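Good morning C.,

I know you're traveling, so I'll keep this short. The sequence:
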Amino acid sequence: MKSPDDPDAYSAATNRSDAPLFERHLKAHRSLTNRGFVITIAFTAAALALPLLAFLGTFALWTLLPYLGAALTALWYFIRRNDHDGTLGEHIRIWPDLIAVHRKNPRSADQYWMANPYWVTTRRRNTKTVENYLTLKGQGREIELGAFLSSDERIALDEAITAQLNACRQP
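The tokens, ready to paste straight into the viewer:
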């Protein structure tokens, strides 16, 4: 039998004709739109260029220009990198005989997890750094769910998944 971490095994198990009883796509909240990115870069470029007006026609302009350009380039790079990291997401599906979680990681390999929902439990706890830390346990593994969600969103997700798992356990 293939490992539940194997993308081929995951794909074979989840390509089904019957619709899942529960399905959620979780995505990180993105507060900076592309329009906001353009405005931020334009405002920063203008704010950095304004003091340079005093140095027009002097050697000091050419001394300061590379540093201001580097600052603007670094801002551009790190905002775009953060935007790419925001593609993190999780896809949770539950059938009567299968629960499947696909985690899309922006800078590493995707992760897959499958188990029988009858034996799966949710666990929500408070840690030193995270309020309402949510995990699923089953198939000999415990996985984290919705790390990028707010505390209230994790509570709602826990309640929805627990209700569906309880429904799957009913004869």
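Safe travels,
E.
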